[in-house]
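#structure-requests
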Amino acid sequence: MTPTGGKLSNSRSSTSILGEHVWAFIDIKTRENGYYLSNRIKQLKDQPVTSPLSYLPYPEYNTGTWRKQWKGEHVTCKGARGKFLNESRDDIIQTYQGLPTGFPSPSVGSAEAVGLDEGICFDRYSRYGPYGLGDDQEEIPGWSNPRAKIDWSNVRWGELQNECLLINKDRYEPDARFKIVLAPRRGLTKEDVQSTISKGESSGPEYK
């Protein structure tokens, strides 16, 4: 439709144009529904939004029961926001209790076989929000953006991992960590790396 007093640029009426858009939308939804139905997938219906809970599938560290099975002492590590992971909700994955109505059973594998809770689920924000997904979005139903905003390009994941291993080293054998050689004899030579750098391309990730 056009504003009052406006004119269409051709002879078609606003009603016919609106009708075309409506039918185009219906056609898209029909094809979309057809895709799911032809693959025996039912589209999930909207469910009431609930608040997620922190996902903490960990044992009771450093207790008598834990020490009977494991050596050393568990020390909490720091996350990307510089806070201890057991104290920072922003760094903890969130989960929803229960499954949406009509949620399909896993076609491969079993959560029970590896001791995971089958009665919970995640959405993309509760699962990846602690790693920056949704930082630039507002009013996401059921999701609260982390309060601490950080520049993810400056996070040194390798350093965080090394620091975490160092403070927990008493839990592991001295040779528990070793350099993994992927595709031996097929790595880049020094000449290849130099050539890549000279072209202004990245030589790969650094873990420092």
